[in-house]
Design brief:
Radius of gyration: 11 Å
Largest sheet: 4 strands, mixed
Strand order of the largest sheet: 5-4-3-6
Distance between the termini: 23 Å
Order of helices and strands: EEEEEHE
Number of domains: 1
């Protein structure tokens, strides 16, 4: 499960739903999604964690290799 900081509610480690893993222009992986209330969230994740989330079906792949 991917978690992130919710800027709107100021809560830490909020579970992320509808997560999509993207890659920045510098090669960093980011997870973008929503919390249970529909508030948008994003978090920078490491390569291993990003690929594991895609493999486990927790997140969708939003980049090309």
């Amino acid at each position: 499960m991917l978690t992130a900081y919710c800027m709107k509610t100021k809560e830490k480690n909020v579970p992320m739903h509808k997560a999509v893993i993207t890659k920045t222009s510098r090669g960093t992986f980011m997870a973008k999604g929503e919390d249970e209330n529909g508030n948008k969230m994003s978090a920078i994740v490491g390569k291993e964690r990003a690929l594991q989330a895609i493999k486990d079906g927790v997140a969708e792949k939003g980049f090309e290799d």
